[in-house]
Amino acid sequence: MPRWTFSEIPDLTGRRAVVTGANSGIGLVEARELARHGASVVLAVRNTEAGEEAARRIRRTGAAGAVSVERLDLASQRSVREFADRFEGPLDLLLNNAGVMTPPRWRETEDGFELQFGTNHLGHFALTGRLLPHLLEAPAARVTTVASIAHHRGDGAVCEGNPREGYDPQTAYGRSKLANLLFADELQRRASAAAVALTSTAAHPGVSATNLVASPDGMGANRLVGTVGQLGVRLLFPGPERGAEGPLYAATVAAPGSYSGPTGIGETRGPVGEARRSRWAQDRTLAATLWDRSEELTGVSFSF
Question: Residue 259, SS3?
Fold first, then answer.
């Protein structure tokens, strides 16, 4: 089967997209390709200075779509609310891409949640819920949430939100990525039950050489570990261009409820196809329980 490429992204002229974490790595490639295919793209980033530089880089490619920058800190429910309050008009695509990975010590968000669970899952859960009225204004909106092959490390304790006691960074990251996948699936089930024109998909990038490993919010909190890890990843794995294929496929053409990602060598790389889900990721009862728990923790309810 031929490899799916960015050239197969359909014309997105007139569509509006929000990409979280779009100032570097996979998020930057995602935003660039959406804009190159005509979409008006909002780079939703914590560091707006880096976001403006990313926007300039995208514009220099001759992208047809407009590019703008808005501040969004997913580790702050206040910031999520303020971003959504500023947003106006229909939204055709929300690409929940941003994330933090494996900080060596238990850390918390502004609201007191474990950093990975609070950022990777609760931040995107609340963002999607608060932007839902804008998504439902669009004729055929899509929400794509970026998970990870690390979701296989997640387990039924995902609803506990990674407590401080017994914290393990790898397990906590896996649970946050399992939460992403459970959320994407439950969103599709609820949208279908409500008979609204909203498609939810999930994707993972495989293993990609991006700045995520070196981020001070993750492994890079230990400078030596972050530097060595970054060098190792760059030597062994493809860059963000390849990593963005799965999320962009999911965001533009994949079927509702699908989970896409690389299909070669343990799903770390290769052509995009249907990705494998852990047994926990297929547990609908767990997905519904996590949804209810997330509404309780964020105070955000979805009104279809």
Answer: strand
Q: What share of the chain is helix, strand, coil (3-state, %, to 5)?
A: 45, 15, 40
pTM of the model: 0.91
Quick one: pLDDT at residue 8? 97
CA 77 to chain centre: 16
Convert 110-131 to b/e letters by CB count within 10 Å (16 or more is b). ebebbbbbbbbbbbbbbbbbbb
Q: Which pLDDT value is given to residue 188?
A: 98
The pLDDT score that the predictor gives to residue 170 is 97
**What is the C-alpha separation between 102 and 107, in angstroms, rounded?**
10
| Residue 99 backbone phi and psi in degrees, to 5 | -175, 165
Q: CA–CA separation, 212 vs 219, rounded Å?
A: 8
Is residue 173 annotated as part of the catalytic site, yes or no? yes
First-to-final CA distance of the chain: 38
Q: How far apart are CA 60 and CA 290, in angstroms?
A: 42
Task: Exactly one of 167, 173, 249, 259 is catalytic; name it.
Answer: 173
Query: Hey, CA dihedral for 179, 183, 189, 193, is it positive or negative?
Result: positive
What distance in Å separates the CA atoms of residue 54 and residue 19, rounded to the nearest whole number?
12
Question: Is residue 223 exposed (0-12), middle (13-18) or buried (19+ Cβ within 10 Å)?
Answer: exposed
pLDDT at 2: 78
Q: What is the mean pLDDT of each run of 10 residues along the chain (304 residues)?
A: 90 98 97 98 98 98 98 98 98 98 96 98 98 98 98 98 97 98 98 98 86 58 50 59 97 98 93 97 98 98 94
Question: In this structure, what are the phi and psi dihedrals at residue 68, rounded to the nearest 5 degrees?
Answer: -135, 165
Please name the helix (run of DSSP H) or strand (run of DSSP E) that holds residue 16, with its range, or none.
strand 16-20
Coil, helix or strand for 11? coil
- The tokens describing 208, both together, are 């990609």
Q: Pick from 49, 29, 84, 145: which is nearest to 41 by CA?
A: 29
